[in-house]
Design goal:
The complex is a heterotrimer, with two copies of chain A (209 residues) and one copy of chain B (304 residues). Chain A is of the alpha+beta class and 209 residues long. Chain A is built from nine helices and five strands, in the order H-H-H-E-E-H-H-E-H-H-E-E-H-H. In chain A, the strands form two sheets. In chain A, strands 3-5-4 form a three-stranded antiparallel β-sheet. With 304 residues, chain B is mostly helical. Chain B has twelve helices and five strands. A three-stranded antiparallel β-sheet of chain B has the order 3-5-4. In chain B, strands 1-2 form a two-stranded antiparallel sheet. The chains are: A alpha+beta (209), B mainly alpha (304). The interface between A and C is large, with 57 and 66 residues.
């Protein structure tokens, strides 16, 4: 997130060794120490700032850690994943049956088909108004949108000051729940849709098209 | 892409009933007209791009009838959406049934445009439905991976900047009330009270007016509506006055524009009867209850 | 992802192989998966019960993990400590200066809207479990409950000995910040609000929601 100018110094060969390098375990252990206390994904840039090394070094170290955790015959019980614009430790999926007993999750209530379809429209057309969602789905979506708001999967987009309509977009929590780094990782809509965007004046050149 | 047929099976809404020589639709949970249309197309195993929509039109209309019969089960605007699509489908079907007319007239063009628009919207909906399936799969898959969120250890927590806490007890109570309030349930009934607003009979109001005028001979309009219980009654009395004027039992007088309107009884014959009024303002004779209501309920009963 | 049938069971001759042994990384990875996610120390006996192996095996595996994390020249950035009758993973002490910087820089001094709402629910329904709060709010509240704990606004209620769930209640610090003498001085909510018992009956998955 915060790209400090000082951090770039670390990548210069022969540059003074950062304080973290002098500690047992070095940069990788330093990264792990911070990963232990975060409660949302942390960007490599933020880690670089905290640890006073370059973002490039942090990213490389994160990749090494990820490979170590996943390593070969004896992977660790946790994994390091990059999603929603940052890095975070997760329990390894195979152990979900054991871990799930310790996790209380209000999200386990499944989304209805209507909620899923509405979420899909918002994800691909964001920012988008309720009226447009309703036009695509052919039904009123007011209560479904409210459900998605309550669950933190979408939020109101910052007012563009032009149209009066409230626009909705997905949250970083949505990305976390889907394990995505950004909305650009959503799969393309069916390629069977040439020109459909024209019909209702949708933006064909939208990045999500 | 997920086969529409599979989606149809998964939702299991369409039930073909050969013995009845027709089909039945279990009324639960099409999330919209596009959803239903896709299912019908899948059932006919038709390519969505083929011009064979007429074949599903009957079923769509039948579904609509059941929908209408199930009183208040759908929001009004939702039903309206179904109607819009049904009318488009009917147009398409009619065009197919009529003997080949001139191709290039405006109506045909409009029809083709309507058809293309409908197809385009259907295709679009289908794509989003597919995307929704992908999202559901990812959500399910990711639900097995739990993030570490152990929180700050005590010695780090002590470093946190002093909490800025300006919430008042009243604001907190408001938050609690909002959080604890029952979630707004989906309306189970479409309110039609505003459409009927209780029955106010013009003829009945005319009777009241006649009695008043017989007694006082001449009254202002304001006096005549002084005891009206609602706007609707005021309107009914005004309509009644117009009727009575046409019947030549009363006369109007107004000294200046926007001045008070005075109504005078003309005593045409002593026993003028408001029953003589025409019935054009009366509600249509009560129709027997929709038969489809009962049949829809019966079907629900079979498919709980 | 591959569920290799490789097993650690050989370490304990004659012992029946547990399900966790069949997973990649085996028992140790299973313990790690749980340790990474929990936010309070867990007893070896509890781990043994959840992982369906003997407590002796769990204790031995915990000792091995502790040694691994502390290991020689390249320790990890986290450490496994036994305290208060249980085990928990902490960030390694040597890296405290970096973690401290992260805490001081990154944290906001205000409660989020989600945290305030959760605090309101706890204030009016205390003592209350996380699961019930999640049900009322319709979202996962683990993270915000932890924030409220960290901030000293709530604490765990004395165990009632019946339900296993941890119950939370507000603290005297909470009353202090609100300027109240006791919880009974909180403004009354309107009487038509449903009792907590009714909350659970909301149809979360209503097809029309």
């Amino acid at each position: 997130m915060n790209h400090t100018a000082e951090s770039v110094a670390g990548q210069v060969p022969g540059a003074a060794e950062a304080a973290v390098d002098a500690l047992p375990g070095g940069l990788e252990a330093g990264i792990e120490a911070v990963l232990m206390v975060i409660d949302e994904p942390i960007a490599a840039g933020h880690l670089a700032q905290v640890l006073e090394v370059s973002e490039e070094r942090v990213t490389a170290a994160l990749e090494r850690l990820r490979a170590q955790y996943d390593g070969g015959d004896t992977p660790r019980g946790f994994e390091l994943r990059e999603l929603a614009g940052g890095w975070r430790i997760f329990s390894r999926r195979e152990f979900a049956p054991f871990v799930s007993r310790f996790v209380i999750d209000g999200q386990t209530a499944r989304l209805t088909q209507a909620a899923l379809e509405t979420l899909a429209v918002i994800a691909y057309r964001q920012p988008v108004s309720r009226g447009r969602i309703a036009a695509i789905r052919g039904v009123n979506v007011d209560s479904v949108v409210r459900t998605l708001l309550t669950r933190g999967l979408i939020h109101e987009a910052p007012d563009d000051g032009e149209s009066g309509a409230t626009l909705y977009q997905t949250t970083s929590y949505f990305l976390e729940r889907l394990g995505l780094g950004s909305v650009s990782e959503l799969p393309r809509l069916s390629p069977h849709l040439p020109g459909v965007g024209d019909i209702d004046e949708y933006d064909v050149d939208s990045p999500w098209q | 892409m997920t086969a529409p047929a599979a989606e149809n099976t998964a939702t299991g809404r369409i039930v073909t009933d050969d013995s009845a020589g027709g089909f039945r639709v279990s009324l639960e949970n099409f999330s919209g007209p596009f959803d239903l249309l896709l299912s019908l197309i899948a059932k006919r195993e038709m390519d969505i791009t083929q011009v064979a929509m007429a074949e599903v039109t009957d079923e769509f209309i039948a579904y609509l009838k059941l929908l209408r019969g199930r009183a208040g089960s759908k929001a009004l605007d939702e039903t309206t959406e179904f109607l819009v699509i049904a009318s488009t489908l009917l147009d398409l079907k009619a065009a197919r049934l009529l003997p080949g007319s001139d191709i290039e007239n405006d109506e045909d063009m409009a029809l083709l445009e309507a058809r293309d628009l409908l197809f385009a919207r259907l295709l679009q909906y289908k794509a989003f439905k597919h995307a929704a399936g992908w999202i559901a799969g990812k959500l399910h898959e990711e639900a097995t991976s739990f993030p570490r969120q152990a929180g700050l250890e005590a010695h780090f927590a002590a470093l946190l900047p002093e909490l800025v806490f300006k919430t008042t007890p009243e604001a907190l109570a408001q938050l609690a009330a909002t959080a604890l309030a029952p979630k707004a349930a989906a309306p189970t009934e479409v309110g039609t009270g505003h459409l009927h607003g209780g029955t106010v009979s013009v003829r009945e109001q005319a009777g009241i007016l006649a009695a008043l005028l017989k007694e006082h001979r001449s009254l202002s309009f304001a006096a005549l509506i002084a005891d009206a219980a609602s706007h609707l009654e005021v309107v009914a009395r005004f309509l009644a006055l117009l009727e009575m004027y046409r019947e030549q039992v009363i006369a109007f007088s107004q000294d200046a524009p926007l001045d008070a309107l005075n109504v005078r009884w003309l005593e045409p014959d002593a026993d003028w009867d408001p029953a003589a009024l025409e019935e054009e303002y009366e509600p249509a004779a009560a129709e027997p209850p929709e038969t489809s209501t009962t049949s829809a309920q019966a079907i629900q009963g079979e498919n709980p």
